[in-house]
Amino acid sequence: MKAVLPLVGLLLGLWACHSADEKLFTRMPSDETGVYFQNKVAEDERHNLFDYHLVYNGAGVAVGDLNNDGFADLYFAGNQSGDKLYLNKGNADGESLRFEEATETAGIQPRGWSVGVTMVDINADGLLDVYVCKAGNYPGAERANQLYINQGAKNGGAVRFKESAAQYGLADTSYTTQAAFFDYDKDGDLDAYLLTTTGLVQNPNRIEPAVTDGSGFSPDKLYRNNGNGTFTDVSGQAGIRHDGLGLGVAVADLNDDGWDDLYISNDFLNNDYLYINNQDGTFRESVGQYFRHQSRFSMGNDVADVNNDGRLDVMTLDMLPADNLQRKKMTGAGHFEQFELELRAGYQPQYMRNMLHVNQGKTPDGQVLFSEIGQLAGVHATDWSWAPLFADLDNDGHKDLFVTNGYLRDITDLDFVAYNVTFWQTGNTKADFRRSTIERAAKMPSWNNVNFFFRNRGDLTFEDATADWFGDKTSLSNGAAYADLDNDGDLDLVVNNINEDAFILRNNAPKTHFLDVRLKGSGKNTFGLGSTVTVFAGGQRQTQVQAVTRGYASSVDYRLHFGLGASQRVDSLAVIWLNGNREVLRNIPANQTVTLNQDGAKPYAKPKSAPENRLWVDATARSGVRYVHQEEPFMDYSTEVLLPHKFSQLGPKLAAGDVNGDGLEDFFVGGAYGQYGKLFIQTASGFRQQAYTDESRPKQEEDTGAVFFDADGDGDADLYIVNGSNEFDDRSVYLQDRLYLNDGKAAFSPAPQQLPVIRRSGSCVRAADFDKDGDLDLFRGGRLVPSQYPLPGESFLLQNDRGRFTDVADAVAPELKSIGMVTDAVWADLDADSWPDLIVVGELMPITVFRNNRGRLTRLNAFPQSDGFWNCVKSGDFDHDGDLDLVVGNTGLNTRYRCSPTEPLSVYAADFDQNGTLDAVSSYYLAGREYPIPPRDLLMKQMPSMRKKFEQYADYARAERKDVLTSEQIEKAQVRRAYMQESVWIENRGKGQFQVKPLPQAAQWAPVQDFWVEDCNDDGHLDVVLVGNAYDVEPVVGRHDALAGLVLLGDGKGHFTPQSYDKTGFVADGDCRSILALNGKAGRWLIVSQNNAPLKVYARSPKAGRSLAEIRKE
Fold this sequence. Notes:
This protein is mainly beta. The chain has 5 domains: 23-410 and 445-555, Methylamine Dehydrogenase, Chain H (7 Propeller), CATH 2.130.10.10; 411-444, no CATH class; 609-625 and 863-899 and 980-1114, no CATH class; 640-817, Methylamine Dehydrogenase, Chain H (7 Propeller); 905-977, no CATH class. The chain has 21 helices and 75 strands. The strands form 20 sheets. Strands 56, 57, 58, 59 and 60 form a 5-stranded antiparallel sheet that branches. Strands 1-42-34-39 form a 4-stranded mixed sheet, with no helix packed on it. Helix 10 (414-425) runs antiparallel to helix 11.
């Protein structure tokens, strides 16, 4: 260990001289820094939008100590301006952040169109070399990448370089965006991955089969280091064959097996790629196995431990604007048909926004589980963005996020796009179209934006700190890198801009503490690439990986920087080198640079989790349950283009009961249109499947709810099935619910005469003796009026009279009939008067309590402004005070649009254009103003008369809700609002008083569709198991899929603690709809239903109670 102690007192003194109102970052003037580099881009006959679609993509910057003087130097890549090398003179003249241009004297010979740049010690001599990636609309030879081998600074002179790409075999002529160097085969030297794109694509979003055999325009390249100063292209044999338009590459061990993998972000239709290292010199593309969706137009990326849990998370950037004006100018209609076609063609789901994929650790089968929560984190919309960089910018111990931004021409403006389409479709020649496109593009305004700074709050959410940390300076920024340029203990930033001087951003961080780490590897990996360093200080853990290719087309400094906040010492520091050896240092003073040598590390075996202590084990295979729910495709949007989601994919729901009287609980799963539901009869070892009715006729109904209850008082479990969906006309015979009477031996007979006419689209049915006459009555919830969103469905209160049912809602609960778009309900005696009360929840409606006053249900105003997108409700005494509390599932916080009591989400519904159809226009608030949600194309499709009002996309983009719908129209409309999005538990305080409390953040990652409440770990406290997600959402917003099931352990005081998947064994990561638990001879079963997917079955682990009780104490 070698330490370099800085002049801490001097630094603190300098900080004291800073003004109190100074930003965290100061943009240093070029005449002070000496850095005058500009990345020049100007359209010409060769480089323009038509002939070279990458013309506005900018270039990167690399930071590293090239002359080993202790200060980081800069290398800027230039498109049309030529590369520039700047040496940091901080050590030479004592001046802070002063650089000297040394391009020519150092032997740098720029040519062509440079894009990416990486510093790497490629020949293992202890000196950083420079690799430059080339593109541009040039012949192949002029696109050959350059490799500058560092010759050192001889006799005290300037550092010199020798261009040697051809000699090394790395003069690749692809359209190369960036290079990453890593030891993929663990032979001790550094191999090269080249991220490529192409200048040849004319329509990159056209749906064509993905090219995966290496024959495409732009498969990436993998060059193996031969160990003798040469490299060999082994792409094909190594499995790097997928075609793409690469804009970001990250090297990291994402599956936690000790071998470096590759995350590749691709622009346009091609999915991102995750190349998992097979440990044998080959890779397998696995993005669909690890990530449930991706950015649509993926730009740069970064991999870092964002939440200090020791796991690596993934960030990709896209081009979703932060403001309403730009969003509406560039967002067209979301075509669900096209989205479905892309899925059928083998592409994974993609959406236009930034993505933050949080690593949740390994599931019981060893698979690393990622959940995308960029919207919850608040980092999903940063305009046309390029480089994401995670780094602790304020030295508080949490990695903040810096994002570069801007595009030279606003070519996504839909008025510009529409003009070009019209010009082509009106018979002009290709030459005319080319000329027109080039001329109009050159006249489009620049999309100058401010670069974003996000402060990490430490809880997986970020605060937009741009104004406080930087200000409002806009730019056209692309590549960026971080380093402590002045060695004062904080990270500065370097940004490569188009047609403007590069930014040198000096960090003015307050007087907190830090630790820097240098790695000195043995063998030919001299800077320890691929190593992992973990620091424990101030009660928290920080983990960083030595990987310098980050963001977009750039590489960062090799020094690892750890902010320590107020901690003056590091409790421990551990480094695990790429070969698996480990070294641990303890009790290290802060404010210094520590150098770690690989030679001092010892062999290390990573501990493994104990699978026998998990709460549940996946028992689907051995349970005998073989049922796959299969939806018949139905396009809700063909008649209601403004729907936020489909209403034809509501199932399948589950119901439990002992249908054959053997003392074992059985269950029913509902079927979709054209598919019968099934009974599963429990046996000693599992379940056997059985039909519940004659299946000789085609099934027309869609099952949306079910319950087992004794309908006719004969002591057995009869079956009631709710019919629903959006696929039928209102009052269709296929919306009539069904009752099946049990003979006590699991043989069911339909009993239609026992029910009234209920031809309404429904959602749920719940049984209770609400009138205390000794039999079970039913509440049947109404979900919707088909094709009339958001009108409330019709609900029913079915009173049981000797097995015949009569709707008595009008008589005993008049407010219940049209209460809303009901999704779920529960009977629970909230006031402990022995009469069951009814709690009803639904979409765009409040949590509603009907107090049972001796058989009459009276609506209470218990939860004002609780309107939300509620999906489910269950009861239980979570705080051990003797009364029943509630847990209620909502849409969660990982959503594009947020709401609050003062700024709700709204839906205004009326026949606004008087053409005989209901128009449902939704709105949201942004920056204090209410805007319509639908893109212009969708609104025009729903209401063609609006075209005269908003002839241009720009006109509509400037419109607020009041400009689209007048106050007179609003007065005549039905209005539904949502004020809450969080899933909650509700404490019953007694005497009609309730307190609503949010569930832990992990329960807010996606819509919660169902709960199961029981004491999972035998500690005497009720716990909550939840499932969720929603795949039926319109494709502009995109699927909600971040949940993978969740176990919340209760402490009996109203507090819930989320448990990891590795510890619980419970993973339900599909489009889950329902969950229930059953007692069996062999123990406890947990059943989970998924839309358009198989049932999942879990069995209780016999050691689970002891194990999770211990977990609670950790």
